[in-house]
Amino acid sequence: MSKQLSNIASEATERTNTTGVMTPILELQPDDGLMWVIKNAVERGQQAQGIPIYADLKDGSGNDLPADTRMAIQFESPNDDDAQTVSEPKTNIRAYRTLSIQDQQNEEYIDQVKHILKGSQLRVDDVDKMYISVDSSVQVDWSQGTRVTIAESAVKEV
């Protein structure tokens, strides 16, 4: 069954990043007894490869995060000392600054918000954690309307 993951999902915990280093802004963990399989090939747009992540990232003043903010998917299992980056980090978030979430979902622009996994898929068990992380000079402020959603077509819950 497909599963939409976002900052308002019951499995999500919103976090505040530490400036200047890659740190989580959104923690996602499956409910007990469940697992997510995150596919690295969403068949929308020109490129088959990648996971669309739709986002509106705001700082404490309600401004967009800087364009040079880096963004990545990270993963942590109980045996890991630190979260591992499992996607190719986006080196800037210009698409998130210039496109509305509705435009990000548009066939014409979706490739700009796809994150490419380093492997063919990511399996997240109920004891694991998946993160959407950023490296930015400012902190994300969830009270300013920040939103993050992973495309439902990329996530299978089993």
From TrEMBL:
<protein>
    <submittedName>
        <fullName>Uncharacterized protein</fullName>
    </submittedName>
</protein>
